[in-house]
Amino acid sequence: MESIDNLSKKLLNEYGNRKREGRLDLVYDIESERFYPVPKEIEHREFMPQIKEHNWRSLIPVQYRIEQKENKKVITYLTVGASSFEKDLKVRHPEAYLKKAYEESIILACEGSDFEIARDARLEIQHMFAERN
After folding, report:
1. What H or E segment, with its residue span, contains residue 51?
2. Is the pLDDT of residue 122 over 90?
3. pTM for the whole thing?
4. 83 Cβ partners below 8 Å, 6+ apart?
5. The predicted structure's pLDDT at residue 54
6. Which of 3.30.300, 3.20.20, 3.40.20, 3.30.70 is the CATH number of 9-129?
7. CA dihedral of 74, 75, 76, 81, whole degrees rounded to 10
8. Can you spell out the DSSP letters for 62-127?
9. Nearest CA among 60, 54, 65, 83 for reference residue 22
10. What are phi and psi of 69, to 5 degrees?
């Protein structure tokens, strides 16, 4: 399984338009500090265990939405921390992991990306699957 180093048009063509046009799903592994693209035909709950067999709480789902605006493709939405993996398998993440994945997702979108973040983009962490003490 290969990780990625940037957001590219090639990546969007291969893994994008997942469930809806412009959607690109990744998984950020806190331990390896790597991003993995989620294939179009597989759900997070099936894909994430392929990355690692244990310590699933360190695998954080990331979703970008990329749209055409003014003759260029831009990131209009980023959400971190929610997928079928958390919902169906009851996986919860430490708040610090969610924040780290969010920060790294912003960096991935800014450094060496074929896309820029729209000024009015919605950027958020989904806290509903955070660990509760």
Report:
1. helix 44-51
2. yes
3. 0.91
4. 25, 43, 44, 45, 48, 61, 63
5. 81
6. 3.40.20
7. 170
8. EEEEEEEETTEEEEEEEEES-SHHHHHH---B-HHHHHHHHHHHHHHHHSS-SSEEEEEEEEEE-G
9. 65
10. -140, 125
Q: How far is CA 59 from CA 49, 67, 83, 100, 110, in A?
A: 9, 26, 11, 11, 21
Q: Cα 105 vs. chain centroid, distance in angstroms?
A: 7
**Average pLDDT value over all residues in the chain:** 91
Residue with tokens 């597989």: 42
- 68-100 residue pLDDT tens: 888 889 999 999 998 888 888 888 899 999 999
Q: Domain boundaries in the chain?
A: 9-129
- Answer whether residue 52 shows pLDDT above 90: no
Average pLDDT estimate for 54-63? 91
